Amino acid sequence: MKVKRVISASSSRFAAQLFNLITVVVLLISMTTLLLGKLLASQKIGFLPLVLSMPPIMIWLGASIFVYASIAHHPNPRTAYYNKWAGYRYYGVMGSLMVFGAPLYDLFDGWKGLMLVMGLAVTIIVPWALFDLYRAAHEPWQDMTIEVDI
């Protein structure tokens, strides 16, 4: 038996923006805690900025897989498109920082390297994500009717 369901335009738009929105929030929280940790840390607890800034990114790295997968097969192709590119950006930058982050961290004496690595992630991801949030908000979304088997 097939039942018709309506996916509202606002729901499709929100799903298209969700991955980018959470990514921007997490990166800004992580960068803020990094800077705050550097201000609070003395020479004896120099690892504090690292300890404060990494948990939001690590938690989002795990949770983002579920968010990405839940939106990847959305019936609206534009929603899946925005989700796909948000995932490409985030996973591409985070993956490349896994390769280049450790040498930069060592090369620039610890926290300066961490600031550089986090700064690169924020500089690369946040402007594109904000631009995609803007584009998705101004796109003409329409309600969709789909048939679902029950």
Structural commentary:
- With 150 residues, the chain is mainly alpha-helical.
- It has one domain (2-149).
- The chain has helices spanning 9-40, 48-72, 77-107, 111-137, and strands spanning 2-7, 144-149.
- It has a two-stranded antiparallel sheet.
- The relative contact order is 0.22.
- The model has no long low-confidence stretch (mean pLDDT 89).
Biggest sheet, open or closed, and with what strands and sense? 2 strands, antiparallel
Count of spatially separate domains: 1
Query: Average pLDDT, to the nearest integer?
Result: 89
Distance between the termini: 6 Å
Radius of gyration: 19 Å
How much β-strand is present in the residues?
A: 5-15%
Share of helix, binned: over 70%
Please count the helical segments: 4
Overall outline: elongated
Strand arrangement across the biggest beta sheet: 1-2
The oligomeric state is single chain
Write a short abstract of this structure.
With 150 residues, the protein is mainly alpha-helical. Helix content is 77%, strand content 8%.
